[in-house]
Amino acid sequence: MKYDFAKIEKKWQEYWEGNATFKTDIDRSKKKLYVLDMFPYPSGAGLHVGHPEGYTATDIYCRFERMRGLNVLHPMGWDAFGLPAERFAMQTNIHPRLTTEQNISTFRRQIKMLGLSYDWSREVNTTDPQYYKWTQWIFLKLYDSWYDSRIQRAMPIETLENELENHGTKKLGLSDSFGPEAWISKSRKEKHDFLAAFRLTYVSEVPVNWCEALGTVLANEEVPEWTEKGYTVERRPMKQWMMRITAFAERLLQDAEGLDWPASTLEMQRNWIGKSEGAEIEFPIKGDKRRIKVFTTRPDTVFGATFMVLAPEHPFVSAITSIDCRSKVQQYQSQSSKKSDIERGAEKEKSGVFTGAYAINPASKKEIPVWVADYVLMRYGTGAIMAVPGQDERDWEFAESYSLDILRTIQPPAEFEGKAYLGDGPAINSGFLNELHVEDAKSKISEWLEQNGVGRRVVTYKLRDWLFSRQRYWGEPIPIVHLEDGTMKPLAENDLPLELPELEKFQPSGTTESPLALATDWVNVVDRETGMKGRRETNTMPQWAGSCWYYLRYIDPHNVGEFCNREKEKDWMPIDLYIGGAEHAVLHLLYSRFWHKVLYDLGYVSTKEPFMKLRHQGTILGEDSRKMSKSRGNVINPDDIVAQYGADSMRLFEMFMGPLEDVKPWSTKGVEGVYRFLNRVWRLYVAEDGSLDLSLADVQPSTQLQRLFHQTVKKVSEDIASLRFNTAISQMMIFVNEATKMNQRPRTLMEQFVLLLSPFAPHLAEELWQKLGHTKSLAYERWPVFEPEKAIEETIEIVLQVNGKVRSRVQVPINTAEPDLVELALKDENVRKHLDGGRIARKVVVKNKLVNIVVEK
RNA sequence: GCCCGGAUGGCGGAAUUGGCAGACGCGCUAGCUUCAGGAGCUAGUGUCGGCAACGACGUGCAGGUUCAAGUCCUGUUCCGGGCACCA
Question: How far apart are CA A756 and CA A711, in angstroms?
């Protein structure tokens, strides 16, 4: 008879819910543990088998640590703003709120059917006005802050205003310097515009990826996702909200070092931030007062700079271009402006045009031509380079195409046959740098540049400011009003949340504004304070916004006065374990680290970093080892698996498939395997008629079974702690295989085994626990204690080798002395056969492991 | 192109520090049970040879270090992921 998982699972899910078994409150008598899952976007497709993988892993970990006496915070919620619901609304005119609510209901039902021990009283939903009130509040905190680079901290914008009133810009180290009187005499609008350049969130005209069909801009990192789906994305300059994440580049880089994260994820974040150290060098333009600033990581090669290249968008281009080159340059500029970065990169041959202008190489004093080419990017460094073809492959390629001078300034090794030489070597053709190797030459030239006022050491980052606005309806409204005098005004805190207006239709506005622009009653306002007419910001926030801080809201989800109480925050933060997909390795995990640091600087959170330990669950492939997709017809629906084998089997199988972080294929046969295992467990305890099996007896366990049990306690405990669930399960299988062979099973030990199994198969375990006579949930029972003395083997098998090959095995008492082991080996018949009368050159003995006799023949 | 990660039976995978390769599960084979199918139970299952004892070979490939290598070193091939004109 099979155990009735459907009945049992329903029963215990109702029990846990009815008894609020997993409701968590602060309990300072216990050590805290905060375990977080990346909350899902509730798509219309319902839960995917990939979701339960991470969720089961954290659930096992939480159940285990609860039984070991920790106070565990383990919440779940919904990342529910997003484009799919809005696109569905465009097609059907069904309000995205309705779609979202339905999807959430499905997800909630599916997640609950897995028996995960969440504290559901803490559920959050990013689309709930009571939640996004605080997303908007944090937005305003960023708006009302600036980054004081002198102390490397975000500070309230008032501190900047105070400083300007008292000292002007003197201490800020700006090129545009003025005194306090000048500040005070500025108009309201002038002050507003000046401060805007410092705020952590600001509006800027930037070239963006505009998608006409979606009616919105996309972040660079979102572009591939939509172009793959067949949408067209074009570049155009638009006014957009930005977040000054670049101010935090160094801290995001530095603080990542102390995190227990997968090395690959840390590496990706490092690459994304893209720190590079080098120098800025200024090149005077012949016949022009301006100087072209370049960034280079190889200032030591400056003597080899035989031409310069400006990005097509560089502000100097039109000014320095000679009359006869003008039309070609302009044509080139307009061509490039239409191309996206991806298109530019896709071109095989580098293109460019001569401006007719010349610059002076500050080191060699030679006149060098200035070109425009789109292999130089405006957004990186200074948007201009000194081209050093001798030591740079791109510059070499360009020089070859346009017959420009190539001068080696590093001596390549004699056997070097390539073009540009990037390696180390003595400097040549480089005046006072000659014979110095790269590192020394870098130091010397940097000093020289600084002394001569033509350059200085600098550090640059690839990281760009975060494009924060979207032209969508289904996102958090940005709580800003544009007043008729051209200034912006943030909403007061008690005017939050700024709720989304109701709309008749969810079509794009037809302009570059979001559909919110069509809600005229909502958009047009009069400022209470000044009486000025104003227009609400119609952009909304990107989906990342809500997920940037949700982990803080879980700590205090119903607080109406604060986003999160400070004392509670101190009690629970930081997050001890965070599990989610590797696809969020950079974006979500970098954006939330950024917001967290702002909140830290402003004194709202107590830790520098939110997520101390991070792991990714690996993708689950279809049974055919290909990515699951509808079109391939290899999608596994968790509902079907749970209906057929039960949630415990689903959980157990997903953990048994292999290491958590690995990519691994689904196997229905494999689910059957763990289902058989659970049935075997059931039959160890329950007779055919449903009563407790008679084989359970109040007898002393045999030493062998007791030993195996304690080995199992050790292995399962260690494996859960290190998230190696697959091997923990196989150890339990070994135990069950042994226990099955016995006619009488010691009851106390078998009870303890139920506890070991309970984090993995909680419904089955609860049912067995109850059948064993217990009246309440085992969720807070004490985890079985490993007793080393009970796990020790009395006898042990020793491997006998001759010349490293196993020739025999013997059973000996544990810790048998080494000489005795040698003696045993030499007496062994098969060993003697292989010694074959040869001279014994060496005897290697490893205690409790092996003897290896080395013979020469 | 660059940077990470990986490669172990028919399949998923296991193997603290170099110390019995293949735990556990799937599949397969045989037997018991059953009217039958299924389920359950028992035994076997890396390859080759052998009734067996046992022997040879065996962790992508080629070398090396070592008494001993899946594990360490050098080179190489393939697969997966990320980045990609970042000066």
Answer: 12
If asked whether residues A196 and A305 sit together in one domain, one would say: no
Mean per-residue pLDDT of chain A:
92
Q: A491: exposed, middle or buried (C-beta count within 10 Å: 0-12, 13-18, 19+)?
A: buried
Within 10 A of A569 (CB to CB), how many other CB atoms are there? 20
Q: Are residues A319 and A236 in the same domain?
A: no
Q: Are the beta carbons of A310 and A386 closer than 8 angstroms?
A: no
Of the candidates A211, A212, A89, the one whose C-alpha atom is nearest the C-alpha of residue A474 is: A89
How far apart, in whole angstroms, are the C-alpha atoms of residue A498 and residue A475? Answer: 11
Cα(A786)–Cα(A374) distance, integer angstroms: 66
> Is A516 found in the same domain as A444?
no
H or E segment at A572? helix A566-572
Pick the closest to residue A278 from A422, A506, A449 (CA basis): A449
B9 C1' to A38 CA distance, Å:
37
pLDDT in tens, A286-300: 988 899 999 999 999
Domain check: are A421 and A294 in the same one?
yes
Q: Note the pLDDT of residue A221.
A: 66
Tell me the C-alpha distance between A479 and A500, whole Å: 11
Token reading at A140: 């305003």
Q: How many angstroms separate the CA of A733 from the C1' of B1?
A: 48
Å: A825 CA to B62 C1': 36
ipTM of predicted complex: 0.94
Least confident piece of the model among A174-183, A708-717, A724-733: A174-183
Spatial contact of A438 and A297, defined as CB atoms under 8 Å apart:
no
Nucleotide nearest to A1 (CA to C1'): B39
Q: Quick one: CA dihedral A413, A417, A423, A427, positive or negative?
A: positive
End residue of a domain, out of A439, A460, A481: A460
Would strands A71-73 and A32-37 be described as parallel, antiparallel, or unpaired?
Answer: parallel
Nucleotides of B under 7 A from a protein CB: 3-5, 11-15, 19-21, 23-27, 39-42, 54-56, 67-69, 80-87
The residue that leads in pLDDT, A796 or A156, is: A156
Same domain, A372 and A475: no
CA–C1' distance A693–B39 (Å)?
20
Cβ of A845: how many Cβ atoms within 10 Å?
17
Structural tokens at position A252: 């995001």
The mean pLDDT value for A541-549 works out to 95
Beta strands in A183-258 (DSSP E): 201-211, 216-218, 234-243
Give the number of domains in chain A: 3
Q: How many CB atoms lie within 10 A of CB A14?
A: 10
Q: Closest residue to B69 by CA to C1' distance?
A: A804
Find out whether the peptide bond into A574 is cis, omega within 30 degrees of 0.
yes
**Which are the contacts of A410, defined by CB distance < 8 A and separation ≥ 6?**
A301, A304, A390, A391, A421, A423, A424, A425, A426, A427, A428, A438
For position A506, what pLDDT does the model report? Answer: 86
Task: Name the protein residue, with chain letter, whose CA is nearest the C1' of B81.
Answer: A264
**Is the model more confident about A144 or about A2?**
A144
> What's the pLDDT score for residue A795?
85
Q: Which residue, A130, A84, A329, A100, is CA-closest to A225?
A: A84
Q: Is residue A7 part of a domain?
A: no
A232, burial (CB in 10 Å: exposed 0-12, middle 13-18, buried 19+): exposed
pLDDT at res. A214: 80
Model confidence band, residue A857 (pLDDT cutoffs 50, 70, 90): low
HSE-up of residue A619 (Cα within 13 Å, Cβ side): 11
Return the SS3 of A829.
Answer: helix
Count CA atoms within 13 Å of residue A633 on its CB side: 0
Q: How far apart are CA A407 and CA A395, in angstroms?
A: 11
Measured CA A48 to C1' B36 distance, in angstroms: 39
